[in-house]
Amino acid sequence: MAKTDNRPLSPHLQVYRLPMTALMSISHRATGVVLSVGTLLLAWWLIAAATSAGAFETAQGFFGSWFGMLVMFGWTLCLFYHLANGIRHLVWDTGHGFDIKTAEKMGRIVLVAAVALTLIAWIIGLAV
């Protein structure tokens, strides 16, 4: 009979906190998937515009609804997050920013930049 220890198995997701860089990496991949789906919506809008006035009105009706605007806001946020995080990866490719303190600071900059650029784009877009 094997001796059993009362030690917990490692790592337990209930007690283990993923580092910010891991969360940012997972988010980068997820936003890439969201951007792909958003590109399909953009293709639908362009095809509708090229097809007929009725098809374009249907697409515009969706994108102009509260749900469509919410989808587009989320897509814009994903776009700017993916862009800013991609720039962070380019900085890493130069061999800079790998220490934990700098990597977390860059992660916070990415988050702030994504939110700020999204809000700026929407403020300008709604004002025009």
TrEMBL record:
TM regions (residue ranges): 33-56, 62-84, 109-127
Topological relation to the membrane, as annotated: Multi-pass membrane protein
Keyword Lyase: no
Cofactors demanded by this protein: heme
Locations listed in the record: Membrane
Ubl conjugation among keywords: no
Main location: membrane
Keywords from the named record: Heme, Iron, Membrane, Metal-binding, Transmembrane, Transmembrane helix
Subunit field text: Part of an enzyme complex containing four subunits: a flavoprotein, an iron-sulfur protein, plus two membrane-anchoring proteins, SdhC and SdhD. The complex can form homotrimers.
General function of this protein: Membrane-anchoring subunit of succinate dehydrogenase (SDH).
Protein name: Succinate dehydrogenase cytochrome b556 subunit
Native species: Tistrella arctica
Phylogenetic lineage: Bacteria, Pseudomonadati, Pseudomonadota, Alphaproteobacteria, Geminicoccales
